[in-house]
Amino acid sequence: MGWWIAVLGVLVVLLALRDIFHTLWHPTRRGGVSRLVMAALWRVSRWVGGKRVAGVVGPLGMLAVVSMWGLLLVVGWALVYLARMPDGFAFDPGLRPEDRSNVLDSFYLSIVAVGTLGYGDVVPVDGWLRVVSPLQALVGFVLLTAVVSWVLGSYPALGRRKALARRLAILHEVDSEAPQPPVVWGASTLESLASEVIRARVDFGQYPETYYFFDDDAGQALPLWAPYAYRMACRMRSEGEGEVRPAAAVLERALADLARTLDLHFLHTEGSPEVVFDRYREEHARR
């Protein structure tokens, strides 16, 4: 019976490691369980409504994902230890194994190991356990450093997205204040915007959790300005002259590519870029 408990623990650990790998290191950056957690919190925030709730979904979602990884690792290794508790372990002379709870000691040892604390009052004596316990400490250390890198990478991606949105908001203000005929952006402006849009598209692929960050500043909210940018790119591609027309075509393609990425991973409308961007705006709208 003890071996079945150990096998179950190994499966739980493998589930956690697979999700960590796919979220943090796999080229697609698509963890299964972590993605479900973030999406579930986002849906709850839409149901509850309000900017204050939406504003904490992204950070809270990342915290929930990291907590889930830690919990799975603790539970998985605790089950492995439970299969050999107490016979496979040596206890400090002040501890009486017969007076202790095998379940609590298994979880205690697992928490100590994953936190790389190493108190030493309960130590494995079985040969394979003497390998498993340090391995858990190594995984805990790797998880800590990986999570720090994850957070430090996500927030610069958010900054780039806000900068793009702010630039589009300023261009909209200039367009609104200009007399007729409609303003035509220069080729250099279109090309630089295309570069920023491409960077935003890559950021959504590398840091998909940033989709669930809500910005209550309208001037920095890309969902609000992406539809406007696409309409302007389409108009300038058809009405522009000289270098403006090919530059506008590049921006239009970049925005269409961004729309495909959003639709494939988050929105699932299977519609045109206009439909996707309108849905993107609705998804991030809050009272």
UniProtKB/TrEMBL annotation:
Keywords: Ion channel, Ion transport, Membrane, Transmembrane, Transmembrane helix, Transport. One of its GO terms (biological process) is monoatomic ion transmembrane transport. Pfam families: Ion_trans_2. The keyword Membrane applies. Residues 72-149 form the Potassium channel domain. The keyword Manganese does not apply. InterPro entries: K_chnl_dom. The chain crosses the membrane at residues 60-82, 103-123, 135-158. This is Two pore domain potassium channel family protein. It comes from Streptomyces alkaliterrae.
